[in-house]
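Private note to self, pasted from the team thread so I don't lose it. Backbone tokens:
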């Protein structure tokens, strides 16, 4: 069990959540956690902006604007923006060898910014103020969606390509075991790692994993980080179900914002992208009725269900029957993993309750799944998910992830996005079905 002994009251959690966001604020952007992740991370910041939107909308907009300072000329929003140096993280700017200022990685992360922007707009009572703030981020966000639908879908298939496990945000998921197994490491970075010195190594990815993923970085460096070459030629090319769903949802949110601000040309483009990706989901469906990630190199669907398999609910792309299949699956998992939703199928060989993305629960993923459940009419299941998420936090603090068997805290402490999701969702019982992410119809 983790060190936290006393169960916090909801009010104490709320106070601590504010304190964590304040402490992790580096002046316009928020680090996910000081000791493990000392820079600005892409999807972390979008979720953090949702948390800020509950009490400081100006700061919420600023979080997104600062993230987009890292945007590349072709529209890509990098996974990390290295605004200020910090020597306790590997791989830092020199390992990536990119040319942007401020320095960034050369890969991206799940596109949550449009969904966050929509939430901030909806939290703003004054429409003119909301539209003025939106006008500052709309074009950069649209450019990032354009990048996904063109550079990362070069053949217009409706399925977007990811080229590195860290792009998916679900870094160490069994979804990437197959694609990575074909990669023969050309580097050995085991001595350079810092993550496994600050967090229990049994909860972190292995050295072999790090050597493989840094080999992908070397491949991209050899292509001078040219977007289309990377998308077509890296050894790992997969359609990540998580990103495919998060992008489709973000397209819907950006469409709502385009309509609100009278951007008809962009709205039409978004409708076309939405139609194309929605149709392409058929290629991600496995024989058991669940959706999976797809290895674009081998044509194989991922062998097991992961927490991403529930995100078609969040994307509104599941049929009622597919939604029922997912509910039945959750019910089947409930006994082994009462603190839902494990990041990977607890009955599959690759499951590991405490190792990154192979079992542990992330509150941001729960937030998206709960939103989808509520939309499909499963309000009770959504509420149960909120309650187990809240119980884990009240008992173990604002940890990076939680053990699905007992809610025990895992990974780093005082995590910004866990604090933000407490403020926006887990600590807000009355809001589950009516506010925030769940408002999209
Ligand atoms: C880990 C997670 C990733 C997250 C980052 C910062 O790398 O896998 O999703 O963005 O930590 O919290």
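Design output:
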């Amino acid at each position: 069990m983790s060190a936290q002994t006393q169960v916090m009251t909801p009010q104490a959690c709320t106070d601590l959540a504010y304190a964590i966001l304040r402490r992790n604020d580096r002046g316009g952007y928020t680090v996910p956690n000081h000791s493990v992740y000392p820079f600005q991370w892409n999807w972390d910041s979008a979720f953090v902006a949702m948390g800020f939107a509950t009490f400081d909308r100006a700061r919420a907009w600023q979080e997104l604007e600062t993230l987009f300072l890292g945007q590349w000329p072709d529209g890509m929003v990098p996974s990390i923006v290295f605004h200020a140096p910090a020597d306790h993280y590997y791989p830092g700017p020199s390992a990536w060898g990119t040319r942007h200022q401020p320095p960034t990685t050369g890969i991206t992360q799940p596109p949550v910014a449009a969904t966050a922007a929509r939430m901030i707009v909806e939290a703003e009572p004054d429409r003119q103020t909301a539209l003025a703030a939106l006008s500052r981020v709309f074009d950069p966000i649209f450019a990032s969606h354009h990048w996904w639908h063109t550079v990362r879908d070069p053949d217009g298939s409706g399925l977007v390509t990811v080229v590195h496990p860290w792009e998916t945000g679900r870094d160490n998921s069994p979804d990437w075991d197959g694609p990575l197994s074909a990669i023969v490491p050309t580097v050995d970075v085991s001595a350079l790692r810092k993550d496994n010195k600050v967090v229990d190594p049994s909860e972190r990815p292995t050295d072999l994993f790090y050597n493989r993923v840094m080999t992908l970085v070397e491949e991209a460096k050899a292509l001078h980080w040219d977007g289309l070459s990377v998308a077509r030629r890296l050894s790992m090319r997969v359609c990540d179900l998580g990103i495919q769903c998060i992008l489709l949802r973000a397209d819907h949110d950006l469409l709502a914002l385009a309509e609100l601000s009278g951007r008809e040309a962009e709205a039409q483009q978004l409708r076309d992208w939405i139609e194309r990706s929605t149709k392409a989901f058929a290629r991600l469906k496995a024989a058991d009725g669940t959706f999976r990630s797809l290895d674009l190199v081998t044509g194989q669907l991922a062998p097991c269900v992961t927490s991403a398999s529930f995100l078609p609910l969040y994307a509104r792309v599941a049929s009622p029957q597919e939604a029922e299949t997912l509910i039945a699956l959750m019910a089947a998992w409930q006994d082994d993993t009462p603190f839902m939703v494990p990041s990977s199928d607890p009955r599959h060989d690759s499951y590991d309750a405490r190792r990154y993305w192979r079992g542990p629960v992330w509150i941001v993923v729960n937030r998206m799944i709960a939103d989808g459940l509520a939309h499909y009419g499963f309000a009770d299941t959504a509420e149960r998910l909120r309650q187990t998420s809240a119980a884990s936090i009240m008992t173990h603090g604002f940890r990076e992830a939680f053990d699905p068997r007992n809610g025990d805290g895992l990974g780093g402490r005082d995590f910004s996005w866990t604090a933000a999701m407490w403020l926006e969702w887990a600590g807000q019982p009355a809001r589950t079905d009516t506010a925030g992410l769940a408002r999209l119809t």
